[in-house]
Specification:
The complex is a heterodimer of chains A (122) and B (370).
Chain A (H helix, E strand, L loop, with lengths): L2 E3 L4 E6 L2 E6 L1 H7 L2 E5 L6 E2 L4 E7 L3 E5 L4 E6 L1 H5 L3 H4 L8 E5 L11 H7 L3
Antiparallel strand pairs in A: 1-2, 2-3, 3-9, 4-6, 5-8, 6-7, 8-9
Chain B lengths: L16 H6 L3 E5 L2 E6 L3 H10 L1 E5 L4 E7 L2 H8 L11 E8 L5 E9 L4 E5 L4 H11 L4 E5 L4 E6 L3 H8 L11 E6 L2 E6 L8 E6 L1 H12 L4 E3 L2 H10 L26 H6 L5 H10 L3 E8 L10 E3 L5 E11 L4 E9 L7 E6 L2 E8 L11
Parallel strand pairs in B: 3-13
Antiparallel strand pairs in B: 1-2, 3-9, 4-7, 4-8, 5-6, 6-7, 9-12, 10-11, 11-12, 14-17, 14-19, 15-16, 16-17, 18-19
Helix pairs in contact in B: 2-7
The chains are: A alpha+beta (122), B alpha+beta (370).
Chain lengths: 122, 370
């Protein structure tokens, strides 16, 4: 299972038709200390690109967009309780929500890890 | 033909810029300067200030030196504070107002015996200078110290550090100052700051600023802190940020800064803007800056509307964020006169109604050594 990335700095990782979504290491570094997250309701249906969650640093709030269309089936309560996990482990324990994909092929539109790293100039 | 892009404005650097870069700071543009927003992170730097000693580069702020005849009377014209009683080697926090009573800037006035040093906000440098020039009598000379450095060492360990480096300054009380020598560097030290902590601000020549900073950083209690932490610290301490919590359109009375005015000034006036300010003291102000404790853990932000129980708009937020030491969000905002006596307010974010409770400021008690 490999991660693919959006231009808005989300990552998506597929396990069958369940897609886990989080933000990139670059995004958490740009945000600074995360102090609040707003997670979507279970059952919410989102089109690709819809703002689905919110991540707030000390200084500002940012939207997290659905990398692909789907239905929210699970959210990560751990980061709601301890937002700093997003900074500490953005690619693992810092995941935000899981979607049941309505069209898995949308993942093919997203960037590979290598392409994303080039995109952010790493 | 390709479109021509606007040239980027050239940003200035303080004398400490290279040190910030070497320390891994995230540099951002601020008031025409390239400034460090953070180094390790805002929360860590905020805690550093509250528990040990944080070093801030505030050299972007303007320092203006005044000499000549009639200085107290001149400053009593510019500010609604009691300057006649400002003694040598003492400083005062005050404001300058324009003729409609609105605040041009909040400033520190420091009497240093043979001169007066005024510290102004970086973003207001040009505006303040123009206002000063407009009212400056022939008997007074004003000199903008363009390259002068300013460092702020803030926190409970600031005095521990100074006890080693410049023990004389330990004799200073809050808002007092003295000429001092730190590691052979001549500088003017005040026991003051804008974080709510005990600490010192050091005015130093540009060529000595880097050495002075490095001298302080060599002390184990000291670490850099940036503008991000500076903002959370001052908010938690209930201190205003010009351009946000007050501006040209707010009088000191509306801004709840009437306390900077002496009793004599409140009766006699005699300062620019006195007409409207004295009227507000007599008849009441149309709005007031209040402080709020925010329920839950989501911050309310500048620009958000304040609502009453019924959902009507009664004001707006001017500053808001998590108060890291307190562990909950706090905010400042303006409320229309009719609703100032309420204690319960609301802000709606993305359909979620957040409760705000009016509280007295500072949100966290100050730690000044008086």
């Amino acid at each position: 299972m490999t991660k693919v990335y959006t231009k808005s700095h989300e990552w998506a990782e597929a396990n069958g038709d369940i897609i886990t979504v989080g933000i990139s290491h670059h995004a958490q570094a740009q945000l600074g200390d995360v102090v609040f997250v707003e997670l979507p309701a279970i059952g919410k249906k989102v089109p690709q690109g819809a703002d689905t969650a919110v991540v707030e640093s000390v200084k500002a709030a940012s939207e997290i967009y659905a990398p692909i269309a789907g239905e929210v089936v699970e959210v990560n309560q751990a980061i709601a309780d301890t937002p700093s996990i997003v900074n500490q482990d953005p690619l693992g324990a810092g995941w935000f929500f899981r979607l049941k994909a309505s069209d898995e092929s949308q993942l093919n539109q997203l960037m590979s890890e290598a392409d994303y790293k080039a995109f952010v100039g790493e | 033909m390709a479109a021509m892009s606007q040239p980027e404005p050239v940003l200035a650097k303080t004398p400490l810029y290279d040190l910030h870069v070497a320390a891994g700071a995230k540099i951002v543009p601020f008031a025409g300067y390239q400034m460090p927003l953070q180094y390790q992170g805002i929360l860590a730097e905020h805690e550093q200030c509250r528990t040990r000693a944080a070093l801030f580069d505030v050299s972007h702020m303007g320092q203006i030196r005044f000499t000549g005849e009639g200085l107290p009377a001149f400053f009593e014209r510019l500010s609604p504070s009691d300057i006649l009683s400002l003694a040598s080697h003492h400083m005062r926090y005050t404001v300058m107002c324009h003729d409609k009573g609105g605040i041009i800037d909040d400033i520190m006035i420091l009497h240093r015996g043979e001169d007066i040093l005024v510290v102004v906000n970086a973003a207001c440098r040009a505006k303040d200078w123009a206002h000063i020039q407009q009212h400056l009598p022939r008997s007074i000379k004003a000199e903008f110290l363009e390259t002068q450095g300013l460092l702020a060492l803030q926190g409970p360990d600031a005095k521990t550090v100074m006890a080693r480096l410049a023990p004389d300054v330990l004799s200073l009380s809050f808002m007092q100052g003295m000429w001092a020598s730190i590691n052979g560097i001549q500088c003017y030290v005040t026991r003051s700051g804008y974080t709510g902590e005990d600490g010192f601000e050091v005015s130093v020549a540009a060529e000595d600023a880097s050495t002075l900073a490095q001298t302080l950083l060599q002390e184990q209690e000291v670490a850099w802190a940036g503008l991000g932490a500076r903002d959370t610290l001052r908010l938690e301490a209930g201190l205003c940020l010009y351009g946000h919590d007050m501006n040209d359109a707010t009088t000191p009375i509306e801004a709840s800064l009437g306390w900077v005015m002496g009793k004599r000034r409140k009766t006699e006036g005699g300062f620019i803007g006195d007409s409207e300010i004295l009227r507000q003291l007599r008849d009441g102000a149309p709005q007031k800056r209040l402080g709020f404790r925010v329920d839950g853990n989501r911050a309310v932000r500048e620009g958000m509307t304040l609502e009453n129980e019924a959902g009507a708009s009664v004001g707006h937020i001017t500053s808001g964020s998590l108060a890291p030491t307190l562990g909950y969000p706090v905010a400042m905002g303006y409320v229309h006169a009719d609703h100032v006596s309420n204690t319960t307010f609301y802000v709606t974010i993305r359909g979620q109604r957040i409760l705000l409770t009016k509280v007295a400021m500072p949100f966290r008690p100050a730690q000044y050594v008086k």
